[in-house]
Please model this.
Amino acid sequence: MSNDYSWALSMHQIESCSCSHGCGCQFGGFPDSANGGCEAILGFQVIKGHFNDLDLSGCKMVFVAMWPKAMHDGNGKGALFIDRSASTEQVTALATIMSGQAGGMPVEAIASLFTEFEGPIISDIVMDPQDHTSTVSISGVLATGQTPHINPVTGLENKVHITYPEGGFMWNDGFIGKTTELKVNHGNLAFDYKDTFAAKAIVNWPNA
Model:
């Protein structure tokens, strides 16, 4: 990986996947979805970020992935969508970062887990990053929404967190809920779920 790049991203991450509540990947390293694989939509909105001297604040992107088994087993299919509001230079910078070409974790590791990948695909991304009710959509292509778990005894919302005191792979502290929908239909990427794992977190990724 090149050492010629300096980048850092602080982002809202809206994570929805095919695992059951709690997500087997988070605790045991292996998915527990019905098909035994990992299928996910991750929406990102940059709070503050840069690629060398280029400001990336406010940029939006969506990452879609399908792995037949666990992520670390590889052989994944994926795509990166970037919002139309990004400049040509910002699109190039985000694609360079997310493809792992500029180094840094977790992107450098994730990029090695695909055998098919498309993008960047310029799209109109609609995103609302809320702690418990985030939504992400691209009309006619994909959509996901999140909602808190409900306590069956009291009927009140369960405000749940997953926290990694020593730091997690993607994020350190996540607001945990469930999906109201989780669907994509784009070429070889297609799935449709609801009532599966959802997390909203602030991620801080640098390549330093």
Remarks:
- Residues 41 and 64 are 5 Å apart (CA to CA).
- Residues 7-206 form one domain.
- The longest helix spans residues 88-98.
- The helical segments are 24-27, 88-98, 107-111.
